[in-house]
């Protein structure tokens, strides 16, 4: 089912695939700003939002007094840290900024209801590709849920403005589209994503993008692989491994993806404890299997669980798990819970 858009340009609202051209959107966006505006771009930092923020900063160059990019979340993924460092993206933690001193606020790749810290802010523009939420408004809105990445939308804005992106900006946009479309395997990807990707393809530094992709592990995290290889148990084509306490759940994702490459493993379940929660990462080939459904059926009674056919996740408060007093969670415990529904 096709997802509805929401566009608001010069007080005209459309909720279907409109006839607004890229140039109309650009001009409507530009009308918000004056030469002395101090602009704050608010994002939840990830490759798509970082690239989009860089694009908006370039669009507003010489048109406003200043542009600052603020983000509330801690950037933990090494890929994203490498992207920020290598491309020298100027970003600042949102809580350190005098938000009320900015004359214009822009939200990218998110909506005001997505995080509690956003709800108190009044945004002048919201550009996003997630499903539309209610309870907020802005002077300029461009939400296109059928797009795979906001970065694809931003390429259209740049082209409408006759701006050729620099190598750094093109590299960011290339990576943002690549990540958010899941290497063009995402179901809601549009032809527009492919057109935008092709446009930045020859400008971007693809060797640098490979560096972003490959930089996933800190040396200090190699110990978790040793634990996983010692712990992994297999039964009927299913691999299970409990890693114990981890610094970040991201390492569980990396280990699950690694084990998913092993021959004869049709299912992979990797768990670890982060804070007061057990995090379980699930992988399968998606052929006559559905990891998301299995995660919900198996773990939803203990906490949040869900995902897609090939990949899923569960986050379960430790206090909710069926453990006896003083009993540790182990790989065997993971197997016992999982095999109830397999």
From TrEMBL:
<dbReference type="Pfam" id="PF01368">
    <property type="entry name" value="DHH"/>
</dbReference>
<dbReference type="InterPro" id="IPR051319">
    <property type="entry name" value="Oligoribo/pAp-PDE_c-di-AMP_PDE"/>
</dbReference>
<dbReference type="InterPro" id="IPR001667">
    <property type="entry name" value="DDH_dom"/>
</dbReference>
<dbReference type="InterPro" id="IPR038763">
    <property type="entry name" value="DHH_sf"/>
</dbReference>
<protein>
    <submittedName>
        <fullName>DHHA1 domain-containing protein</fullName>
    </submittedName>
</protein>
<feature type="domain" description="DDH">
    <location>
        <begin position="39"/>
        <end position="177"/>
    </location>
</feature>
């Amino acid at each position: 089912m096709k997802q509805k858009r929401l566009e608001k340009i010069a007080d005209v609202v459309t909720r279907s695939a409109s006839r607004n051209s890229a140039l109309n959107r650009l001009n409507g966006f530009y009308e918000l700003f004056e030469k002395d505006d101090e602009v704050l771009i608010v994002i939840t930092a990830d490759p798509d939002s970082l690239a989009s923020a860089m694009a908006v900063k370039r669009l507003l160059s010489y048109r406003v007094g200043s542009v600052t990019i603020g983000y509330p979340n801690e950037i933990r993924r090494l890929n994203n840290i490498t992207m920020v460092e290598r491309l020298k993206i100027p970003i600042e933690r949102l809580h350190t900024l005098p938000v009320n001193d900015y004359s214009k606020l822009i939200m990218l790749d998110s909506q005001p209801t997505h995080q509690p810290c956003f709800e108190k802010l009044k945004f002048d523009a919201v550009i996003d590709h997630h499903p539309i939420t209610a309870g907020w408004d802005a002077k300029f809105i461009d939400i296109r849920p059928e797009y795979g990445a906001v970065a694809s939308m931003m390429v259209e804005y740049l082209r409408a403005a006759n701006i050729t992106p620099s190598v750094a900006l093109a590299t960011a946009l290339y990576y943002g589209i690549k990540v958010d479309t899941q290497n063009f395997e995402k179901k809601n990807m549009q032809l527009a994503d492919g057109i935008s990707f092709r446009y930045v393809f020859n400008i971007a530094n693809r060797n640098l993008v490979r560096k972003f992709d490959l930089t996933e592990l800190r040396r200090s995290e190699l110990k978790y692989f040793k634990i996983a290889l010692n712990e992994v148990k297999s039964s009927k084509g299913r691999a299970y491994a409990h890693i114990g306490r981890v610094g970040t759940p991201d390492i569980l994702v990396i280990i699950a993806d690694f084990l998913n490459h092993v021959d004869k493993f049709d299912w992979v379940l990797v768990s670890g404890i982060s804070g007061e929660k057990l995090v379980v990462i699930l992988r399968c080939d998606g052929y006559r299997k559905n990891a998301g459904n299995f995660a919900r059926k198996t773990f939803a009674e203990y906490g949040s669980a869900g995902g897609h056919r090939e990949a899923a996740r569960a986050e379960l408060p430790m206090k909710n798990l069926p453990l006896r007093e003083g009993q540790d969670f182990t790989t065997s415990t993971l197997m016992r819970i999982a095999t109830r529904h397999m």
